[in-house]
Amino acid sequence: MRALCATDLSAASEVAIQNQTCLDCLGRIGVDEIHLVTVVSSNVHAGMPGIDFESRRGAALDRYCDVITRAGFEVETHVVRGTPHRRINGIAEAIVADLVVVGSRGKSPLENRVIGSTARNLARTTVVPLVVNRIERGDEDLAPVRKHLFRHVLYATDFSENASRAFEAFTYLRHATRRATLVHVRTPKDPELTAAEHPSAMDRLRERAETLEEWGIETEIDVREGDPAGEILRSEAAHSPTITLVGSRGQSRMRRLLLGSVSEQIVAEADANVLLVPPSRA
To answer: Quick one: 24 and 111 in the same domain?
Structure first.
Protein backbone atom coordinates (compact mmCIF):
# COMPACT_ATOMS: atom_id res chain seq x y z
CA MET A 1 0.00 0.00 0.00
CA ARG A 2 1.06 3.55 -0.69
CA ALA A 3 0.36 6.35 1.82
CA LEU A 4 0.67 10.09 1.32
CA CYS A 5 1.61 11.99 4.47
CA ALA A 6 0.93 15.71 4.25
CA THR A 7 3.06 18.02 6.35
CA ASP A 8 3.19 21.78 6.79
CA LEU A 9 6.42 21.35 8.82
CA SER A 10 4.60 22.53 11.96
CA ALA A 11 5.18 20.98 15.38
CA ALA A 12 1.92 19.03 15.05
CA SER A 13 2.97 17.60 11.69
CA GLU A 14 6.36 16.62 13.08
CA VAL A 15 4.75 14.76 15.99
CA ALA A 16 2.41 12.91 13.62
CA ILE A 17 5.21 11.84 11.27
CA GLN A 18 7.81 10.98 13.88
CA ASN A 19 5.50 8.96 16.14
CA GLN A 20 6.90 5.44 15.91
CA THR A 21 3.66 3.83 17.07
CA CYS A 22 1.69 5.51 14.27
CA LEU A 23 4.27 4.34 11.73
CA ASP A 24 4.03 0.81 13.14
CA CYS A 25 0.24 0.96 12.71
CA LEU A 26 0.61 1.97 9.06
CA GLY A 27 3.01 -0.90 8.54
CA ARG A 28 0.59 -3.40 10.06
CA ILE A 29 -2.19 -2.50 7.62
CA GLY A 30 0.14 -3.05 4.66
CA VAL A 31 1.66 0.37 3.97
CA ASP A 32 5.21 -0.04 2.65
CA GLU A 33 5.67 3.22 0.72
CA ILE A 34 5.21 6.72 2.12
CA HIS A 35 5.17 9.94 0.11
CA LEU A 36 5.87 13.09 2.12
CA VAL A 37 4.15 16.14 0.67
CA THR A 38 4.59 19.73 1.77
CA VAL A 39 2.79 22.56 -0.02
CA VAL A 40 4.38 25.99 -0.07
CA SER A 41 2.00 28.92 -0.23
CA SER A 42 2.25 30.98 -3.39
CA ASN A 43 2.75 34.01 -1.13
CA VAL A 44 5.98 32.61 0.34
CA HIS A 45 9.23 33.22 -1.51
CA ALA A 46 12.73 31.99 -0.72
CA GLY A 47 14.11 35.52 -0.99
CA MET A 48 11.90 37.02 1.72
CA PRO A 49 14.14 38.95 4.15
CA GLY A 50 15.02 37.31 7.46
CA ILE A 51 13.51 33.91 6.62
CA ASP A 52 15.45 30.94 5.24
CA PHE A 53 12.55 28.76 4.19
CA GLU A 54 14.53 26.56 1.83
CA SER A 55 17.11 25.36 4.37
CA ARG A 56 14.51 24.91 7.12
CA ARG A 57 12.25 22.90 4.85
CA GLY A 58 15.14 20.78 3.57
CA ALA A 59 16.39 20.02 7.06
CA ALA A 60 12.92 19.07 8.28
CA LEU A 61 12.20 16.78 5.32
CA ASP A 62 15.60 15.10 5.68
CA ARG A 63 14.82 14.45 9.34
CA TYR A 64 11.38 13.01 8.54
CA CYS A 65 12.78 10.84 5.75
CA ASP A 66 15.40 9.41 8.09
CA VAL A 67 12.74 8.45 10.65
CA ILE A 68 10.49 6.86 8.03
CA THR A 69 13.32 4.99 6.32
CA ARG A 70 14.58 3.58 9.62
CA ALA A 71 11.03 2.37 10.30
CA GLY A 72 11.29 0.21 7.16
CA PHE A 73 9.36 2.22 4.58
CA GLU A 74 10.34 3.43 1.14
CA VAL A 75 10.00 7.22 1.14
CA GLU A 76 9.71 9.93 -1.48
CA THR A 77 9.27 13.68 -0.99
CA HIS A 78 7.24 16.22 -2.95
CA VAL A 79 7.57 20.00 -2.49
CA VAL A 80 4.96 21.91 -4.47
CA ARG A 81 3.32 25.33 -4.54
CA GLY A 82 -0.36 26.15 -4.48
CA THR A 83 -3.48 25.54 -2.42
CA PRO A 84 -2.69 22.73 0.05
CA HIS A 85 -5.78 20.54 -0.23
CA ARG A 86 -5.89 20.82 -4.03
CA ARG A 87 -2.23 19.93 -4.46
CA ILE A 88 -2.47 17.07 -1.92
CA ASN A 89 -5.49 15.62 -3.75
CA GLY A 90 -3.71 16.01 -7.08
CA ILE A 91 -0.59 14.19 -5.91
CA ALA A 92 -2.70 11.49 -4.24
CA GLU A 93 -4.34 10.78 -7.59
CA ALA A 94 -1.08 11.00 -9.51
CA ILE A 95 0.72 8.43 -7.35
CA VAL A 96 -2.46 6.34 -6.89
CA ALA A 97 -2.28 6.62 -3.11
CA ASP A 98 -4.28 4.18 -1.00
CA LEU A 99 -4.37 6.49 2.01
CA VAL A 100 -3.76 10.14 2.90
CA VAL A 101 -2.62 11.00 6.43
CA VAL A 102 -2.78 14.52 7.84
CA GLY A 103 -2.03 15.69 11.37
CA SER A 104 -4.53 18.01 13.03
CA ARG A 105 -4.17 20.03 16.20
CA GLY A 106 -6.65 19.22 18.94
CA LYS A 107 -8.00 21.58 21.55
CA SER A 108 -6.35 23.28 24.47
CA PRO A 109 -8.04 23.39 27.90
CA LEU A 110 -9.11 26.96 27.14
CA GLU A 111 -10.69 26.54 23.72
CA ASN A 112 -13.14 24.38 21.81
CA ARG A 113 -11.83 21.81 19.38
CA VAL A 114 -10.94 23.29 16.05
CA ILE A 115 -9.57 21.72 12.91
CA GLY A 116 -7.03 23.23 10.56
CA SER A 117 -8.25 24.54 7.22
CA THR A 118 -6.24 21.98 5.24
CA ALA A 119 -7.66 19.01 7.14
CA ARG A 120 -11.16 20.47 6.89
CA ASN A 121 -10.87 21.06 3.14
CA LEU A 122 -9.41 17.59 2.61
CA ALA A 123 -12.38 16.12 4.50
CA ARG A 124 -14.67 17.82 2.00
CA THR A 125 -12.75 16.94 -1.15
CA THR A 126 -10.52 13.90 -0.54
CA VAL A 127 -10.31 11.40 -3.38
CA VAL A 128 -8.81 8.57 -1.28
CA PRO A 129 -9.36 7.42 2.32
CA LEU A 130 -8.22 10.17 4.68
CA VAL A 131 -6.77 9.66 8.17
CA VAL A 132 -6.98 12.72 10.40
CA ASN A 133 -4.39 12.09 13.11
CA ARG A 134 -5.25 14.10 16.23
CA ILE A 135 -2.41 15.93 17.92
CA GLU A 136 -2.90 17.92 21.10
CA ARG A 137 -0.84 19.69 23.70
CA GLY A 138 -0.23 17.70 26.86
CA ASP A 139 1.30 18.82 30.12
CA GLU A 140 4.68 19.43 28.51
CA ASP A 141 4.54 19.02 24.74
CA LEU A 142 2.45 18.03 21.72
CA ALA A 143 1.51 14.36 21.47
CA PRO A 144 -0.95 12.12 19.55
CA VAL A 145 -4.36 11.88 21.21
CA ARG A 146 -4.34 8.12 20.53
CA LYS A 147 -0.97 6.44 19.90
CA HIS A 148 -2.46 3.36 18.24
CA LEU A 149 -4.33 4.53 15.16
CA PHE A 150 -6.43 1.47 14.39
CA ARG A 151 -6.54 -0.61 17.60
CA HIS A 152 -10.20 0.21 18.41
CA VAL A 153 -12.36 1.28 15.46
CA LEU A 154 -15.77 2.89 15.84
CA TYR A 155 -17.58 2.30 12.54
CA ALA A 156 -20.61 4.52 11.87
CA THR A 157 -23.09 3.42 9.20
CA ASP A 158 -26.39 4.53 7.71
CA PHE A 159 -26.35 1.40 5.48
CA SER A 160 -25.73 3.52 2.38
CA GLU A 161 -23.54 2.32 -0.47
CA ASN A 162 -20.65 4.48 0.66
CA ALA A 163 -21.00 3.38 4.28
CA SER A 164 -20.60 -0.17 2.98
CA ARG A 165 -17.51 0.96 1.08
CA ALA A 166 -16.14 2.36 4.35
CA PHE A 167 -16.70 -1.04 5.99
CA GLU A 168 -14.46 -2.60 3.32
CA ALA A 169 -11.56 -0.73 4.95
CA PHE A 170 -11.59 -3.49 7.58
CA THR A 171 -10.03 -5.81 4.98
CA TYR A 172 -6.73 -4.05 5.71
CA LEU A 173 -7.47 -2.49 9.10
CA ARG A 174 -8.09 -5.94 10.62
CA HIS A 175 -4.35 -6.55 10.79
CA ALA A 176 -4.06 -3.72 13.34
CA THR A 177 -7.57 -3.75 14.88
CA ARG A 178 -8.40 -5.58 18.10
CA ARG A 179 -11.82 -4.08 18.89
CA ALA A 180 -14.66 -2.57 16.86
CA THR A 181 -17.83 -0.73 17.81
CA LEU A 182 -20.55 -0.66 15.15
CA VAL A 183 -22.93 2.27 15.52
CA HIS A 184 -26.14 3.13 13.65
CA VAL A 185 -28.30 6.16 14.39
CA ARG A 186 -32.02 5.98 13.67
CA THR A 187 -33.62 9.32 12.92
CA PRO A 188 -37.25 10.50 12.99
CA LYS A 189 -37.07 10.50 9.16
CA ASP A 190 -36.54 6.73 9.00
CA PRO A 191 -39.51 5.20 7.18
CA GLU A 192 -41.52 2.46 8.78
CA LEU A 193 -40.01 -0.73 7.34
CA THR A 194 -41.50 -4.15 7.80
CA ALA A 195 -39.26 -7.04 8.76
CA ALA A 196 -40.35 -8.84 5.59
CA GLU A 197 -39.02 -6.01 3.39
CA HIS A 198 -35.77 -5.19 5.11
CA PRO A 199 -33.67 -6.70 7.88
CA SER A 200 -33.58 -4.57 10.98
CA ALA A 201 -30.67 -2.29 11.77
CA MET A 202 -29.65 -4.67 14.55
CA ASP A 203 -29.66 -7.64 12.17
CA ARG A 204 -27.55 -5.75 9.65
CA LEU A 205 -25.06 -4.78 12.32
CA ARG A 206 -24.92 -8.36 13.59
CA GLU A 207 -24.01 -9.56 10.08
CA ARG A 208 -21.11 -7.12 9.99
CA ALA A 209 -20.13 -8.04 13.54
CA GLU A 210 -19.97 -11.72 12.58
CA THR A 211 -17.57 -10.87 9.75
CA LEU A 212 -15.28 -8.94 12.08
CA GLU A 213 -15.37 -11.60 14.77
CA GLU A 214 -14.34 -14.21 12.18
CA TRP A 215 -11.25 -12.03 11.72
CA GLY A 216 -10.58 -12.13 15.46
CA ILE A 217 -11.89 -8.62 16.20
CA GLU A 218 -13.88 -8.23 19.41
CA THR A 219 -17.06 -6.42 18.33
CA GLU A 220 -19.93 -4.59 20.01
CA ILE A 221 -23.09 -2.94 18.61
CA ASP A 222 -24.53 0.46 19.47
CA VAL A 223 -27.91 1.50 18.00
CA ARG A 224 -28.98 5.06 18.80
CA GLU A 225 -31.72 7.50 17.89
CA GLY A 226 -31.52 11.21 17.16
CA ASP A 227 -29.22 13.54 15.24
CA PRO A 228 -26.66 11.36 13.37
CA ALA A 229 -23.55 13.48 13.90
CA GLY A 230 -24.36 14.25 17.51
CA GLU A 231 -25.09 10.63 18.40
CA ILE A 232 -21.98 9.34 16.64
CA LEU A 233 -19.91 11.80 18.66
CA ARG A 234 -21.67 10.68 21.86
CA SER A 235 -20.95 7.07 20.94
CA GLU A 236 -17.30 8.01 20.50
CA ALA A 237 -17.28 9.61 23.94
CA ALA A 238 -18.89 6.50 25.45
CA HIS A 239 -16.61 3.89 23.83
CA SER A 240 -13.28 5.82 23.54
CA PRO A 241 -12.12 4.35 20.20
CA THR A 242 -8.72 5.15 18.76
CA ILE A 243 -10.32 6.05 15.41
CA THR A 244 -13.80 6.66 13.99
CA LEU A 245 -14.45 5.17 10.54
CA VAL A 246 -17.12 6.83 8.41
CA GLY A 247 -18.05 7.19 4.74
CA SER A 248 -18.60 10.57 3.15
CA ARG A 249 -21.22 11.84 0.76
CA GLY A 250 -23.22 8.65 0.98
CA GLN A 251 -26.99 8.51 0.60
CA SER A 252 -29.09 5.73 2.00
CA ARG A 253 -31.96 4.20 0.03
CA MET A 254 -33.78 3.95 3.36
CA ARG A 255 -33.75 7.69 3.94
CA ARG A 256 -32.22 10.88 2.61
CA LEU A 257 -29.08 11.32 4.69
CA LEU A 258 -26.14 13.06 3.09
CA LEU A 259 -23.11 11.90 5.04
CA GLY A 260 -21.05 14.76 3.66
CA SER A 261 -22.24 17.16 6.36
CA VAL A 262 -22.27 14.44 9.03
CA SER A 263 -18.74 13.26 8.30
CA GLU A 264 -17.46 16.84 8.14
CA GLN A 265 -18.85 17.52 11.62
CA ILE A 266 -17.28 14.32 12.93
CA VAL A 267 -13.89 15.26 11.46
CA ALA A 268 -14.17 18.71 13.02
CA GLU A 269 -15.40 17.69 16.48
CA ALA A 270 -14.29 14.11 17.21
CA ASP A 271 -11.93 13.60 20.13
CA ALA A 272 -10.08 10.69 18.53
CA ASN A 273 -8.63 10.12 15.06
CA VAL A 274 -10.94 9.85 12.06
CA LEU A 275 -10.75 7.67 8.94
CA LEU A 276 -12.94 9.15 6.22
CA VAL A 277 -13.68 7.01 3.15
CA PRO A 278 -14.93 8.84 0.03
CA PRO A 279 -16.95 7.31 -2.82
CA SER A 280 -15.12 5.21 -5.38
CA ARG A 281 -12.98 7.18 -7.83
CA ALA A 282 -14.67 5.31 -10.69
So the answer is: yes
